[in-house]
């Protein structure tokens, strides 16, 4: 390869640096992708441990293991770690690994900034994690950090706020990089409407990130000044309003949930056609639906605040606008189903996870539609029903698809095949236990059990116990995943994988034209063949 | 900027990690300082110094690489896209504070005063004597009596300064494109000078607000929105003026050609962005 003009001829054909510092100073998209993915996997277990602490406490009514304050810290930190430490970085990791290989680019457009966005993420998560050991404990206000409650946080408050700033900076830098890569680095012939859907969904996601992360940063900055610099943004005595914070937060927060789900859609749209051995059904409608969902995400935020006290016109507007999201999402669900229709399907682990995603995400979508109805939401608001809803859209959706992606691309990344039998065991354990874990929470919510409490009325005991049992099965099943990943990286099953790994995968994406594992630098000269089977 | 050659990919980046360490140190210091720790401010200054030094190192490296012709046209496009989207993120950041001003002024304060049937109606029950008006420091008269900032003194003068600096900046750009070194340097010097003049005048305005008008960051919602919006803008003017100073220094060193001057363009875009934000501030914070 020759990545550099004349002065750096000695860099021809060079591989990675030796030693650990390779990972600190790397600008290589594959290295940085690996860093993101490993970091996200570690955080998945950290956040998961917090979830198990929550479920242990809720196993029975009464106080068992932890103080209420610590319990609330756990719900808050579990959410923040999972959202900002696990799901988002994992998708950025996939983007780093796959986007250049999918569009025929030599690397990401801005490699030095790529390095910085990863390390700023680590710095942000370190700040957040440090709050666990501070006087007054970690933030315990819920991940939404609503004032005035969050302003009662002890020493942790400024650390949590600066952590949000750092995570925001990291996300914005990563997003800018992804947009510049997609717009500027495509191989000749790779037109926008020939891009794999994973690339498309990330393009839209990156736009959402740049648009809303600064909004969240601004909101928490006002929390900081309200606490330490005498401002009155969220204080009615000074002419401010705590509800203003909720508007700011959810103007960020609603697009944020789509930031976690759009790349999920992208990976599902990449995997399903390969194992159905058919082109993706309705490629352009998928693109348009993605753009539609992204647009709607900006104009529905107050459906998180139906019960806060809004004028009637506001309730109605946000209710109808929210229900419209079901249209582009429905388009996607039907497209995936139509892709599988009459396909010669096989059921390797990536496909199993993808099918489970389509089914279970639909369920999560329907409960979302129920809560979009403002009058009904007065019943569901802040109960376990909402907890069940968003976990259905995150765990059997984002997490399942992330694991599908790992199974799908690990053979490409490492050149080793994973253990299919163990992987299927991991799938079935996960798919069954995730339902034992979250399905009963619907009943709890409908019966009126509030969220974010360490203790509850005796009538909720049975379903909580079942849910906790599901949680432990699900949590410990993930150790199988960890084992499979490590084993695959080391030597796998010993079976040498081909370039395309999956039958006829070459028709579906550029990455399958590269060797497995791909060389350290790929596509230093743009590829000639552009596969179009995914269209 | 050469159009041939492969896309430049650096192979080992030391500066970004160092910048991150500086940033982290600075924020840890600031957070400790806010919690009342005595070493906080020392850490913060140390972090800031590391941050700035490492940033300077990074940008120096970029300048050297650019001057040695390592960036082809495609690299230039990446940088331009990066800058544009960065400015977009900044627009969204300011949008929060403009949105806050709009929301509190047009919705919260009237609700607190008992107008309409919004969520603030219940707050009105607590402060029944409060009458909605703007500017206000709220029903609790937080921060005591104050005098609002007028538009036609320093702020108006500052508007003229910034608009003029936008013109001098464009004049410098024309000089660069016409290979007129004299015009480039003079235009940039004028822009940087006007930028710092703006900041000095704003500092004076703040001094007057605090000492003569009783207007502080703690003066209820008016003081909060006033200082937050103008403060963040002033900070951005400082950053913009520093960027332009670097561009001025590089121009003086003979960098930039009519075909290859991304740093100049980025600085100019940033400056115009700061300019436009000020126009918004002048209308919504000072005039209305």
Q: What does this protein look like?
A:
The complex is a heterodimer of chains A (535) and B (288). Chain A is mainly alpha-helical and 535 residues long. Helices cover 65% and strands 0% of the residues of chain A. Chain A has 15 helices and no strands. Chain A has helices spanning 21-25, 29-57, 68-103, 111-130, 156-184, 197-228, 242-276, 283-297, 312-324, 326-340, 349-372, 374-380, 384-414, 420-446, 461-490. With 288 residues, chain B is an all-alpha fold. Chain B has two domains: 1-71; 73-287, Four Helix Bundle (Hemerythrin (Met), subunit A), CATH 1.20.120.80. Chain B is built from eight helices and no strands. Classes of the chains: A mainly alpha (535), B mainly alpha (288).
Q: Uncertain spans of chain A, ≥5 residues at pLDDT below 50?
A: 1-12
Mean pLDDT of chain A: 93
Instruction: Tell me which oligomeric state these chains represent.
Output: heterodimer
Mean of all residue-level pLDDT scores of chain B? 93
The number of helices of chain A is 15
- What CATH calls the topology of chain A is Cytochrome C Oxidase, Chain A
Largest interface, per-chain counts? A-B, 81 and 80 residues
Poorly predicted segments of chain B = none
The outline of chain B comes out as globular
N to C succession of SSEs of chain B: HHHHHHHH
Report the top-level CATH class of the largest domain in chain B: Mainly Alpha
Which geometry of chain A do the CA atoms define?
globular
Going by helix content, strand content and strand pairing, the class of chain A is mainly alpha
**Helix-residue proportion of chain B:** over 70%
**Radius of gyration from the alpha-carbon trace of chain A, in angstroms:** 23 Å
Named CATH architecture of chain A: Up-down Bundle
CATH classification, class level of chain A? Mainly Alpha
The total of beta strands of chain A comes to: 0
Q: Give the number of domains of chain B.
A: 2
How far is the first residue's CA from the last residue's CA of chain A?
Answer: 31 Å
State which percent range the strand residues of chain B make up: under 5%
């Amino acid at each position: 390869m020759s990545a550099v003009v004349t002065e750096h001829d000695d860099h021809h054909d060079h591989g990675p640096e030796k030693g650990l510092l390779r990972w600190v100073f790397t600008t290589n998209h594959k290295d940085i992708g690996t860093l993101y993915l490993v970091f996200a996997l570690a955080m998945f277990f950290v956040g998961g441990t917090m979830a198990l602490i929550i479920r242990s406490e809720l196993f029975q009514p009464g106080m068992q293991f932890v103080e209420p304050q610590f319990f609330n810290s756990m719900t808050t930190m579990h959410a923040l770690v999972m959202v900002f430490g696990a799901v988002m970085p994992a998708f950025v990791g996939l983007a780093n690994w796959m986007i250049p290989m999918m569009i025929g680019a030599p690397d990401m457009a801005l490699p030095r900034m790529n390095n910085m966005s990863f390390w700023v993420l680590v710095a942000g998560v370190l700040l957040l994690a440090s709050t666990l050991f501070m006087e007054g404990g970690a933030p315990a206000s819920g991940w939404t950090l609503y004032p005035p409650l969050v302003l009662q946080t002890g020493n942790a408050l400024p650390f949590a706020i600066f952590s949000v700033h750092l995570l925001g900076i990291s996300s914005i830098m990563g997003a800018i990089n992804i947009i510049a890569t997609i717009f500027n680095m495509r191989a000749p012939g790779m037109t926008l409407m020939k891009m794999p859907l994973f690339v498309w969904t990330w393009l839209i996601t990156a736009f959402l990130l740049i648009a809303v992360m600064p909004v969240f940063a601004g909101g928490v900055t006002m929390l900081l000044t309200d606490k330490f610099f005498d401002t009155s943004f969220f204080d009615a005595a000074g002419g401010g309003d705590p509800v203003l914070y909720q508007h700011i937060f959810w103007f960020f927060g609603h697009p944020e949930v789509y930031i976690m789900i759009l790349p999920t859609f992208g990976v599902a749209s990449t995997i399903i056609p390969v194992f159905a051995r058919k082109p993706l059904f309705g490629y352009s409608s998928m693109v348009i639906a993605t753009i539609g969902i992204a647009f709607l995400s900006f104009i529905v935020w107050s459906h998180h605040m139906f019960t806060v006290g809004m004028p009637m016109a506001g309730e109605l507007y946000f209710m109808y606008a929210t229900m419209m999201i079901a249209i582009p999402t429905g388009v996607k669900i039907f497209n995936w189903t139509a892709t599988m229709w009459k396909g010669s399907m096989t059921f390797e682990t990536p496909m199993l996870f993808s099918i489970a995603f389509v089914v279970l995400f639909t369920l999560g979508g329907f409960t979302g539609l129920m809560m979009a109805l403002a009058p009904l939401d007065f019943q569901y608001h802040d109960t376990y029903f909402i907890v069940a809803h968003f976990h259905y859209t995150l765990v059997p959706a984002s997490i399942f698809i992330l694991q599908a992606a790992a199974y799908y691309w690990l053979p490409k990344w490492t050149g080793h095949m994973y253990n299919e039998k163990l992987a299927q065991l991991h799938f079935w354990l996960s798919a069954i236990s995730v339902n034992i874990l979250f399905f009963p929470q619907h009943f709890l919510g409908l019966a009126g059990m509030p969220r974010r409490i360490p203790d509850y009325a005796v009538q909720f005991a049975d379903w909580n116990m079942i849910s906790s049992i599901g949680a432990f099965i699900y949590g410990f099943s993930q150790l199988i995943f960890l084992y499979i990943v490590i084993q695959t990286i080391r030597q796998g099953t010993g079976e040498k994988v081909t370039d395309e790994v999956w039958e006829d995968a070459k028709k579906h994406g550029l990455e399958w034209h590269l060797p497995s594992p791909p060389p350290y630098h790929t596509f230093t000269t743009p590829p000639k063949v552009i596969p179009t089977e995914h269209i | 900027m050469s159009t041939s050659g492969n896309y430049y990919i650096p192979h080992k980046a030391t500066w970004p990690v160092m910048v991150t360490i500086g940033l982290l140190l600075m924020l840890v210091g600031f957070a400790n300082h806010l919690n009342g720790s005595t070493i906080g401010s020392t850490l913060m200054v140390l972090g800031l110094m590391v941050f700035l030094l490492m940033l300077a190192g990074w940008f120096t490296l970029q300048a050297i690489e650019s001057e040695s012709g390592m960036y082809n046209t495609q690299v230039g496009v990446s940088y331009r896209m990066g800058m544009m989207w960065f400015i977009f993120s900044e627009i969204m950041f300011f949008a929060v504070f403009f949105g806050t001003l709009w929301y509190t002024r047009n919705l919260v304060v009237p609700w607190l005063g008992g107008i309409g049937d919004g969520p603030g109606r219940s707050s009105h029950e607590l402060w029944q004597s409060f009458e909605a008006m703007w500017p206000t420091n709220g029903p609790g008269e937080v921060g005591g009596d104050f005098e609002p900032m007028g538009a036609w003194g320093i702020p108006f003068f500052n508007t003229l300064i910034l608009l003029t600096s936008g013109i001098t900046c464009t004049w410098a750009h024309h000089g660069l494109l016409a290979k007129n070194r004299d015009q480039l340097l003079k235009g940039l010097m004028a822009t940087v000078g006007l930028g710092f003049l703006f900041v000095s005048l704003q500092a004076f305005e703040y001094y007057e607000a605090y000492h003569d008008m009783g207007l502080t960051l703690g003066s209820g919602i008016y003081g909060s929105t006033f200082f937050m919006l103008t403060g963040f803008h002033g900070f951005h003017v400082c950053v913009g003026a520093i960027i332009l100073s670097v561009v001025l220094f590089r121009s003086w060193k003979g960098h930039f050609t009519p075909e290859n001057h991304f740093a100049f363009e980025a600085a100019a875009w940033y400056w115009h962005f700061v300019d436009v934000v000020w126009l918004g501030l002048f209308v919504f914070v000072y005039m209305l």
